[in-house]
Amino acid sequence: MNMGKRMFIRKAASLFMLLLLVSSTAKAENSQPYTLDSLIKEALTLNPEILSAKNAFESASARIPQAASLNDPMIEFEYDRITADRMLTGKPMKTFSVSQDIPFPTKLYLRAKIASKLAKMAYENYKAKDRDVISRVKSAYSELALIYKAIEINKENKDVLDQLSKTAATRYGAGQGTQADALKAQVELARVDNELIMLEQKRVTAQAKLNVLLNRDPREDFGIPLVEAAIKFNRTLDDFYRLTLDNNQELKAYRYAIDRGKAAYDLSLNEFMPDFTVKFKQMVDKGRAEEGAWAGMIGVTIPLWFFEKQSFGVKEMKSDLEMVKAEYKGKENSVLFEINDAYARAVANKKLIELYETAFIPQAQETVNVAIKGYETEKSDFLTVLDSQRMLINFKLDHYKAILDLRIALADLERIVGTDIDF
C-alpha cells in the first residue's frame, strides 16, 4: 500500500508538471518558427541600441558643415547725434554697417576635418553595435534551440525510465526483483520531472532575452527554432588576425581618432595665425544711401598672449594625440586576445563534438543496451542500468552544449572580426 500511494503521488505530480509544461510551450510548438536570418534583419531594424548608435552617427555627420561655416555676420544701425552737434549740422548721422569675422583659411578646413573624423568614428561605433547585436542574437537563438533539444532528450529519457520502472515493478510483483529497484526508478523519474521544470524556466528566460534584442514583448513565443546548418570550421588563427586588423570597427574608430588627433594638433599650431574682421559702413539720409558717404575696415587679431594660450594648446593636443595612439595599441592587443580566446574555444568545442558523435555517444548507447540485456537476464543489477542511461543522457546533453558553445564562439569571432564569415 505504501508503495502504491507513493506511485500515485508521483504520477499525480508528474501529470501536474506535464500540464504546466504543455500549457506554457504549446503556443511555441504550434506557432510558425522564425529563421535566424529573419531575426537578425529584424534586430538590425528595431534594436534600440542600434537605433541610438545610428542617430549618434547622423548627429555627428550634421556637425561637419557647421564646423566649415563662418560665424553669422553682424548688421548694425548707428544713430549718432553727438557727431552731428559737433559739426553744427543739427542733423543726426544714421549709419548702417555689416561686419564679418573670418578665421585664418586653414582653420576652417581643419575644423571640418576634425568633425569629419568624429563622424567616421561614430559610424564605426554604429557598425560595431550592429555586429554586437548580431552576435547576441545568434547566441540567444542557439541557446533557445539547445534548451528545446534538452527538453526533447529529457522527454525521451523519461519514456525509457518509465518503461524501466514498469519492468522493475513487474519483476518485483513476480518476486524476481527488489522493492529498492522499483523505488530507484521512481526517484530517477522524479529527477527528470524536476529537470524538465528547470528547463522550462530556462526556455522562458532565453526567449525573453531574444525578444528584448528584437525590441519585442519579452513574453512573445518564437516557436521551436529551426535546425541550423552543420558547421564547417577550417580557417586558421592567422586568417582571423588579418581579417580583424582590416575589418574590426573598434580599431577603425581608433584609427579615425588618431587622424582626428592629428588634425586637432595641426589646428592648435594654426591658432598662432591671425583671424580677420571686415566691416562696411554706409551713411543714409531720408532712407537713401548718401553717395560717397561710406567707410570700410579690416581688422586682424594678434596672438599676443601665445605663451599662455596657444603654446599650451599645442602641448595639450600633442598629449591627446599620444594618448589616443597608446589607447589604439592597447585596443589592438585586447582585440587580438579576444580572437585567440574565441578561436581556442571554437577549436576545442569542434573536437569535442566529433568525439561525442564518433565515440562517447555510440559507446554509451551500447553500454545501455548491454546493461538492459544483463538486467533482463539477471546478470547485472538495476542500478547499473540507471547509471548507464544517465551517462548516455549526460553525453547527449553535453554534445548539444558543445554545439552551443561552438556557435557562441563563432558568433564572437564574427563580432570581433567585424564582418560575416563563411566558416
Task: Please tell me about this protein's structure.
The chain is of the alpha+beta class and 423 residues long. It has a single domain, classed as Outer membrane efflux proteins (OEP) (Up-down Bundle), CATH 1.20.1600.10. It has ten helices and four strands. It has helices at residues 2-30, 36-46, 48-67, 82-86, 105-173, 179-213, 237-247, 249-270, 310-376, 382-417; strands at 74-80, 93-102, 276-285, 288-300. Strands 1-2-3-4 form a four-stranded antiparallel beta sheet. Strand 3 (276-285) and strand 4 form a beta hairpin. It is elongated and about 135 Å long. It starts with a helix and ends in a 6-residue tail after the last helix. 29% of the residues are buried. The model is unreliable at 1-5 and 18-30 (pLDDT under 50).
On the 0-100 scale, what is the average pLDDT? Answer: 88
Structural class: alpha+beta
Sheet with most strands: 4 strands, antiparallel
Biggest sheet, strands in spatial order?
1-2-3-4
Which stretches are low in confidence, meaning pLDDT under 50 for 5 or more residues running? 1-5, 18-30
CATH class wording:
Mainly Alpha
At the fold tier of CATH, the topology name is Outer membrane efflux proteins (OEP)
* Strand element count: 4
Strand content: 5-15%
Tell me, briefly, the overall form: elongated
Note the total helix count.
10
Task: Tell me the series of helices and strands, N- to C-terminal.
Answer: HHHEHEHHHHEEHH
What is the number of independent domains? Answer: 1
Radius of gyration: 38 Å
CATH architecture: Up-down Bundle
- Name the helicity range: over 70%
